[in-house]
Amino acid sequence: MFVVLRLISLILVVSALMLLGADAVTSLENGGKITVRSLDQVWALFDNHGNPAFHAWCAAHFWPVVNAGINAVTGLPGWAATGVPGIVLAFLFGRRVADAA
Questions:
Q1: Does residue 2 carry a pLDDT above 90?
Q2: Which residues of 56-85 are buried (b: 16+ CB within 10 A; e: fewer)?
Q3: Which of 31, 44, 47, 79 is a Cys-bridge partner for 19, taking CB atoms 3.0 to 4.6 Å apart?
Q4: Are 34 and 27 in contact (CB under 8 A)?
Q5: What pLDDT digit, counting tens, does each position of 4-13 carry?
């Protein structure tokens, strides 16, 4: 179980670094204007119609407070939304040092 969670944390951290690098390259292409993509924007790059359909479904099936929370999470920068959970998992399920006793 520890190995699987360590692998998931590695995948999350690598994807966060990739998203951060993509934002840095886009910022350089825009003449130094800082560009940060949210999860909504990253999702729209892969599936342009799925994101509005997901938000419409959430609005129809969840309470407004839960829907606002989902909108807040999908509005986070992509690198932060994947990197923070990845780092937390890496600290929780990192390598264990054997006792030398």
A1: no
A2: eebeeeeeeeeeeeeeeebeebbbebbbee
A3: 79
A4: yes
A5: 999 999 999 9
Q: Which residues pair with 99 in a beta bridge?
A: none
Strands (E), 1-101: none
Q: What's the rounded Cα separation, in Å, for the pair 92 and 55?
A: 32
Is the distance from CB of 3 to CB of 87 less than 8 angstroms? Answer: no
- Sign, CA dihedral 28-29-35-36, equals negative
77 to each of 6, 33, 89, how far by Cα in Å? 23, 16, 19
